[in-house]
Amino acid sequence: MSKPTTGKPRAPQEPAPAAAPLDGPVVPRALPLIGVALALIGLAVSVYLTIEHYTSPTLLACPENSVINCLKVTTSPESVVFGIPVVWLGVGYFVVMTAANLPLAWRSTHRLLRLGRLALAVVGVGMALYLVYAELFEINAICLYCTSVHVISALLFVLVAFGTALTAGPAGARA
Amino acid sequence: MSAKPSIENKRARQRIAAQRAADQRRRNLIVIAGSATAVVVVVVAVLVGVRLTRHTTTTAAKPSSTVQAMTGPAPASLVAQVTGISASTLDKVAAGQVSQLPVPIKNAPALTSGGKPEVVYIGAEYCPYCAAERWPMIIALSRFGTFSNLGLTHSASGDVYPNTPTFTFHGSSYTSAYLTFNGVETNTNQPTANGYTTLDTPTAAEQQLLTTYDAAPYVPASSAGSIPFADLGGKFLISGASYAPQLLAGKTQQQVAAVLDDPSNSISQAVEGTANALTTALCKLTGGKPATVCSSAAATAYQGKLG
Q1: Hey, is the C-beta of B123 within 8 angstroms of any chain A C-beta?
Q2: Could you say which of A136, A158, A169 has the minimum Cβ distance to residue B51?
Q3: Which domains does chain A have, with CATH numbers?
Q4: Domain coordinates of chain B in residue numbers?
Q5: Is residue B206's pLDDT more than 60?
Q6: Interface contacts (A, B; CB < 8 Å)
Q7: At what angle do helices A86-100 and A30-54 cross, to 10 degrees?
Q8: Could you report the predicted ipTM of this complex, rounded to two decimals?
């Protein structure tokens, strides 16, 4: 039911409160778009690496020379962390990141969601840095697919860090 | 005068103060985000920088696996054992177990030398896939001609499938009435700061083959430049290993050669199955000569399957 209009001039509206607007933070349109795109690309590469991991890693479509060697990386001891293949961690990470970067998720002021997404981005870039270290110093080989996943993780971290800052409400708000 | 304006002014000031505080907090968070990004960039730069400047002494010092494949000139008895596998054994293996077949090259000029179809192989001694591929290449080519001065080597000790036992084409020669063969080993298996010691340099024509056919659309763009690469007379190409080098892990050349007479052995199934696929391709180059080879069950196992 709509309120009947009185015909009186409307009182000047109170400006929208600066803190915790009811509609959630103002989210730049590109933010969730880029986030979802990056996460989906990362997911696609991770799924490919997972399929190769369980089928025929020798057929991994990747040039092989003294520096680049995907098979050496994907079959190394460092490809398993806490008993879990890194490829599975990648798939899980990018599935969650895809959901956490949807426009609805970015508009949410839910503290747990915002902090969780940021924490996940930090864990992702931390894992990427560890794996870069492992490739360069432990395995002595670079995997092109893995490197693309590392770059995407770093870009997602930058996006989420700046996105979280840009969409932050005042201290004490739910955001 | 009522007190209402002063209350509104007070609220307005509070709103402005809250707005400023929020803006300040946002700026602070942006600075933190920028700093965190800078830290990530610096960490990556340091890792790459240290790796580029560091000598790969750890790789060089790595112990080899327990069973060490031989290096140096190949003993005549070993060469005879590998190149003299009986036709009946190869026939029994027939298609064997091969994961990757020679790929036909469409609309390419014939590759010939001295009036005969030419086979060009480009690989490296450190490369385990090359190590695997040399076995069937030697077996198949030996059905059309004779190798001399083959050497023994193994793939790099610090690479995947370390010390895969194999031969080397470096310094070898091949004579045949039907084919010519050039084997190029670009690097040894001895690591240096930036890779492996350089060995053979491909000729401009060989390099051109690699650049042209070890690239899209002949092979997937993502695996362009992979070795081993072989051009079989301009009609077929090989890019990568035809079977997993893991099959040869932990064995010496003699141990591999010893099982090649058993057609049911998994190594024979892979090595000789690949050799038979190569033989099928080579028979297409030679026009079915020699007939004794090209009409055998081994040489026809892949008839119609190579495109």
Answers
A1: no
A2: A136
A3: 30-166 (1.20.1440.130)
A4: 1-54, 72-300
A5: yes
A6: 107
A7: 160
A8: 0.77
CA distance B155 to B168: 10
User: What is the Cα Rg of chain A in Å?
Assistant: 22
Residues paired with B145 in a beta bridge: B176
Give the minimum alpha-carbon distance from A167 to chain B in angstroms, rounded to a whole number. Answer: 8
Task: Report chain A's terminal Cα–Cα distance, integer Å.
Answer: 32
Mutate to test the interface with A, among B40, B47, B101 (most CBs of A within 10 A): B40
Spell out which residues of chain B touch residue A132, defining contact as CB-CB under 8 Å: 44, 47
List residues bridging with B168 in a β-sheet: B151
- Residue B251: name the closest of B94, B68, B46, B113 by CA: B68
pLDDT score of B256 more than 60 = yes
What is the sign of the dihedral through the CA atoms of B119, B123, B124 and B128? Answer: negative
The DSSP secondary structure of B257-291, one letter per residue, reads HHHTT-TTSHHHHHHHHHHHHHHHHHHHHHTS-SH
Q: Pick B40's closest partner by Cβ from A61, A125, A141.
A: A125
Residue B293 in contact with residue B144, Cβ under 8 Å? yes
* Between B181 and A170, the higher pLDDT residue: B181
- CA-based nearest residue to A45, from A78, A3, A93, A11: A93
A118: amino acid identity, one letter: L
Tokens of B143: 């059905």
At residue B221, the pLDDT reads 80
> pLDDT tens, B90-134?
999 999 999 889 999 988 999 999 999 999 999 999 999 999 999
